[in-house]
Amino acid sequence: MTKYNIPVQVPVGVSNKHIHLSQAHLEQLFGKGHKLTELKPLYQPGHFACKEVVTIAGPKGIIPNVRVLGPLRSQTQVEISRSDSFALGIKPPLRDSGDLEGSAGCILMGPKGTVVLEEGVIMAARHIHLGVEEAKVLQLKDKDRVNISVGGERGLIFNNVLVRVAQGLRLEFHVDIDEANAGFLASGDYAYITEKSEEKEVSTMSERVIQKI
Ligand SMILES: [Zn+2]
Question: Which positions, given as ranges, span the membrane (predicted)?
Answer without folding.
Answer: none
